[in-house]
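Need tokens for this chain, all 283 residues.
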Amino acid sequence: MGIRLVYGLKTSDVSYLEEFYPSRRLAEAARALGLDYAATVFPPGAGPARIEAFCRGHVALLRGELPLTLYEGLEAAGARVVNSASSTALAADKLLAARRFAEIGADHPRTVAIDPAGTAPPLAYPFVAKPRFGKMGRGVALIDSDMAWAAFLRERGAVEFIAQDYIAPSRGRDVRFFFADFGEDTVAVVERRSAVLASNAHAGGAMEPFVPPAGLRLEAERIFRQSGLDYGTVDFLFADDAGASFAVCETNACPGFEALELSSGLDAAKAILRAALGAGGAS
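Here are the structure tokens for all 283 residues:
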């Protein structure tokens, strides 16, 4: 049984996978591990039957912007999908994830949906508005006044948004636990920092290794187990200036790893492939 990578990109040119950092690194790691490995793209409009045939008899490693129906169709066809449809859907939906954090008793900022037809602020100022479905840090805004709220209402468009309590000590920084199979360990931990509100690398953030308190690592492991993911990340906000208290922010089923590899020297691509091979199958 090998690995078949399917990447959702805005191109049908398979050769782009040779240039795109994540797919190039995954191919390099597969060669180093001696795996039966192949990759393809799933551009908008492509039919799932081709992908089902491509993945048949192998582990399907899905990354990028892909329809949930592709995950579900592959699972229905008997494929082992990494990550599963249910875990990917939960991680992508910040509102449902917040409710799940509440169910399992994890500290998390108060999170509510923003009514598309509403005009009153959903939370007291200041609060954070962000797309309900992940946009790699894009669209995240601090709403701290009537003026900022009015500007948000004018500019948000048709995207679904959520509102979340603003935790000031975590402005422009968070702690990311990257779970995969790194060999001696199952997780890499970094602090992400940015000069702006969002700490994502796509928003200009940088990262460096971080040694978490023992209790925080245990909480991250508990949340990851509850997520159903085979690999992925759990991100925490700093709840105080001293770095002694934290609140989980979100999970991610398809994290980028370029900045992680370049800042830490870890082989995240190899760790992802090992996690995929060790996956227990779709849930």
